[in-house]
Amino acid sequence: MNSPGSPVDxxxxxxxxxxVPDWPVSKQVRALITTRAGGVSTGAxxxxxxxxxxxxxxxxxxxxxxxxxxxxxxSFLPSPPRWIRLQHGGDVVNAEDVNANELSADAAIACAEGxxxxxxxxxxxxxxxxxxxxRVVGVAHAGWRGLxxxxxxxxxxxxxxxxGVQPRDLxxxxxxxxxxxxxxxxxxxxxxxxxxxxxxxxxxxxxxxSKYRADLPALARAGLAQVDVRDVHGGQWCTHSDPGRFYSFxxxxxxxxxxxxxxxxxxx
Length: 268
Description:
Oligomer: single chain
Shape: globular
Strand order of the largest sheet: 4-5-8-7-9-13
Radius of gyration: 18 Å
């Protein structure tokens, strides 16, 4: 405890390079997405002459540095993030049920105050979700496999069922991901998407008969519209084309992971 007249330690400040969503939801909803900046990792996981904010385990980085990065991230949060084991599928979990034994899923939701939903990313699209009044929050890890598996639709349905809200009450925020100019895929990706998202063809540009450019934010918007979520923000950052700011697995292979986090702030 500080003695009378002693200086008070200032609250930590978010790195200015991190992304804080600007979207029309209750001030009780708090969210952020980290970038390369603000940590202690070096080498492939660094950030130029600054330490890198790699929070991804099993990326080849020094585990002690990853632990320190996660500790720094924790200082901005009301409780430890509920880390999940990503599967590139469509499973959704209640973040309240996640503990030290991470559950396998690609999305998490929460109604309880102070419970931090979290996914890690390095080209796949993070999608933050909340209802405008701040009763429920969620985050999804939406790569092409997750989008084809219906991870966004499943997250919306889980949030609506849990909190008794309607899809039209929800707002979405799309974080950084590999951009359409850099994301080349084969016809099997187009076919997989057709089975899950109506009208998905508009999100693909044919380069030749065996290669397409895929627009993940456009696919996410189409998937969200399918379950009547149409108030969608963000989606303008390309991880692949901005190596100074973002990790990218497709660009570098050996690289770090960002975190996308969302929670309901108590007493806000």
